[in-house]
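[stage:ingest] chain + small molecule (iron/sulfur cluster)
[stage:ingest] validated
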Amino acid sequence: MPKYKIIYDKPTCIGAASCVAVAPKFWELVGDKAELIGSTYNEQTKKYELIIETAEDLQLNQDAEQVCPVAAIKVEKIED
Ligand code: SF4
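[stage:predict] done
[stage:export] tokens:
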């Protein structure tokens, strides 16, 4: 399967928890912000990133991307 990456802009998050509702395997609410479980912080972009390994996980995070009211979550293809 092509490789995808989740890119999460934490400062944009308003804590609506929609991502947590659709993909609790990846998203949890800590205080008033979501955390992308297992992600690493990219110092250059100032965003959190996580590689997606399976089609099922891709679907979960595409759902999270869609339901986030402030577009803090992006799912990008990084390799065919
Ligand atoms: S859906 Fe968006 S705004 Fe809501 S908690 Fe998740 S990342 Fe934050």
